[in-house]
Amino acid sequence: MDLSTKLRRFFAQASIAVCAASPLAVPADFASASGRKIILDPGHGGQDTGASHGSTVESEIALQISKLIEAELVKAGHVVVMTRSKDEAVSLERRAALANESKGDLFVSIHLNASTDPRAEGKEFYFQNQLAVDEAALFLANRENHGLEEDRVQKAGLRAAEAARIPELKIANNAVRTDVRNILEDLDRNVRIRDSSELAKFLYREWQNSDASKLTRSSLRGIRQAPFFLVSNVAMPSVLVEVGFLTNPKESARLKKPDYQSSIAVSLATGIDRFFKRNQL
Questions:
Q1: What is the total count of domains within the chain?
Q2: Which phi and psi angles does 72 have, rounded to 5°?
Q3: What is the pTM of this model?
Q4: Which residue, of 63, 138, 218, 237, has the fewest CB within 10 Å?
């Protein structure tokens, strides 16, 4: 077998392996806009209630909003997998494993924010970081990553989440050289981060244009990058959404209202749907 034939076969095998391993391998414009699989992750749960304001807790509101998003996505023809559907504790590792085992097309984690400043308000959209992050983002990531096994966090520190292992590409029969494998994995990671950034933009724009946003004048704090464990450990585009601050009295009151929760759900579900259809517009 001559060298050119060997090379053609080599890259054909590598391409097949990448396609089999990553949901990003199928371009959006060749895929159906319906029937996509979305992993919805209501933050916290069980004894881990997350942020709180009086009797209102993050885990409860996050689950309520996630169920509304699920209903909207199902209505649009998508398949939804919830990392939890009731008030129960689910470890961060188990949430990531469930997402990867389910072979989701994207992952969205729903959270509510908190601050020592009661004036802080607005929504934030986070995806996996490539560059250095600011102190506020690191603090938030540290808080949200608190569900990790405590001794792991103490030994490895917050940077372990920032440099969290992305699920490796499974190259067929280990036939691909280590250096080429590393290149393919880096490419796959970069595509995931790029698509995660695009997803965050779609979610941001939909909320910005929503009727609820215009009526409440709720601020948008923007799109940021941070070392969240979950968005760094799922093999698909992923975004963590902080839908508002429970520690802001006005925003906390809104977040408890069913109609406001519904407006958030419609906005996020529409953003997700349009993300899938982006190459068909």
A1: 1
A2: -65, -40
A3: 0.72
A4: 138
